[in-house]
Amino acid sequence: MADARPLTCQSVETWNRVAWVAMERMTQHVRASGFHCRPRRWTLSAAAVLSLMLPLGAGAQVGASTQPGSNDHTASGVTTVQGAEQIFSSVPQAAGSTQVTQQDFKGSIVDGKATDGVLELTLDDAIQRGFRTNLGLILQGAQTQTVNGQKLQALQALLPSVTGSASYTVEQVNLAAYGLSFPGLNPIIGPFQVFDFRAYLSQSLVNVSSIQKYIAAKHNFQGAKLTAEDARNMVVLTIGNAYLLCIADQARIDAAIAERANAKVSLDQATAAHEAGTSPKLDVLRARVDYQNADQQVIQTQNNLEKDKLNLARAIGLPLDQKLHIADAAPFTAATPTTPEQAFADAQKNRKDLQASAERVKGAASQRSAAKAEYYPTVDFNGDFGDLGTTPAHSHGTYTATGQVSVPILQIARTQGDIQVADANLKATQARYSDQVQQVNADVRDALLDIEAAEKLVEATKSNVDLANEALSEAQQRFRSGVADNLAVSDAQSQTEQANNQYISALYQHNIAKLSLARAVGYAGTNYKQALQLGGK
Fold first, then answer.
1. What is the pLDDT of residue 311?
2. Nearest residue to 168 via CA among 210, 198, 204
3. From the CB of residue 318, how many other CB atoms can be counted at a distance below 10 Å?
């Protein structure tokens, strides 16, 4: 693309207006030719533009389609999930290790082989499988092990080091080669042999820098452990989102099948009326188009469900050829009321990633103290003890003991450099922690706002579904009575389809907002059942 500019809200709105005007003119032209169509079928929404221009991953997309009722994975819920995952992926990891990213939580290690029949999969089963097989959790565990190894390496500098050796030496010396000659003495001495069995000991008695480095390693290890615990929240968030998408897909399939049945009733009515001579062929054509569109929608929603099942299987370690059925449903259950202040206070106590960042700040402070301690003298002890002789039977014990005090004199540049590097790292870690605290506060407030808005959306869209169904029934009765043509039936079917799709999307938004709040507060890894309350129809 020669001119790639970022897509802004203003550009999307402009595109929307242009697309809508163009579709309206096309609709007017077609209607003028005597054939009715629904402009809503051609509406290109802002979400559709974004889905075409932003490379989002499958199973967590801003769904868009030129047909209403498509698998529109709602923008607000997915944005919340991706935001939370991005925060985790930006957490500093162990030096020299591969960073765990949000994409890793969408993968897994396959556990077992596919079985015959259909697996009834509940959300709890899916998450428990994820705890065992999810790639992000496994990689985070490996990083924790790496940091633990670094801690042990730092500890070794404070522990005594003991090594042992055994040697057998046979030697013959030519004194003349060294310019030595003695009258009456053979210059060739030997051969003679020496046996030496010895143990060596080295111990750092005073080394402040090594002590501070070990303390820093302990804090980093504790931070890695907390990050690994927080990874469980990310597993719940990722798998929960994938599972909720499958529930929404199944609901769309049910709605699409019902809409196809209504379209079939309207087609049969129009055909019968046309054969009776009371209705023009245009009514039959219009009804057949509606029926075929409904049939296409069933096919599309079924395909979306199968693809989202694959994404779910990828995240929980199921073989991709394993047939599964989503056993839980997602009824509307109001979230437990709480205030932003209370939720933020709970998050500060519960969020493991926040506690991990606090540990890293302490580790960075200890690393800076270790750099400053390079100015301090060190005290070391070195010694050996062994048995030395011509043969093991003719030997005697020998030993050496050395105490050493080392004082740095001319290494100012290196020490100052280490101090500045450590100081910069401490400031960056403190700034990152401070920002993360504010991000957690924003996460909590965003989730609460999403829940509040989604609850209102559920109420409004549920009312729209009832009204649309009533309007459809009224239109079908009027057409059956011959009072009107089936144009009103076609419009009512479209409104019913749109209302059902909006209601399903609102339910998904509400549930994903509750799950995001559980992650934002820090209890998604333990109380996800309480947060979602799935299971009803």
1. 94
2. 198
3. 23
Cis-peptide, bond into residue 187, ω within 30° of zero: no
Structure tokens at 190: 């030997």
Where the chain has pLDDT below 50, the residues are 1-72, 74-76, 86-91, 94-97, 536-537
Q: Are 320 and 115 in contact, with CB atoms under 8 Å apart?
A: no
- CB contact burial 436-456 (16+ within 10 A = b; e otherwise): bbebbbebbebbbebbeebbe
CA 487 to chain centroid: 48
pLDDT, tens digit (0-9, with 9 covering 90-100), for 276-333: 888 888 988 988 998 999 999 999 999 999 999 999 999 999 999 999 999 888 777 8
**Secondary element (H or E) of residue 386:** strand 378-391
92: helix, strand or coil: coil
- What does the pLDDT read at residue 196? 92
Give the separation between CA 533 and CA 266, rounded to whole angstroms: 38
Per-residue tokens: 375: 């100015």
pTM: 0.74
Please state the three-class secondary structure of 57-75 as a single string: CCCCCCCCCCCCCCCCCCH
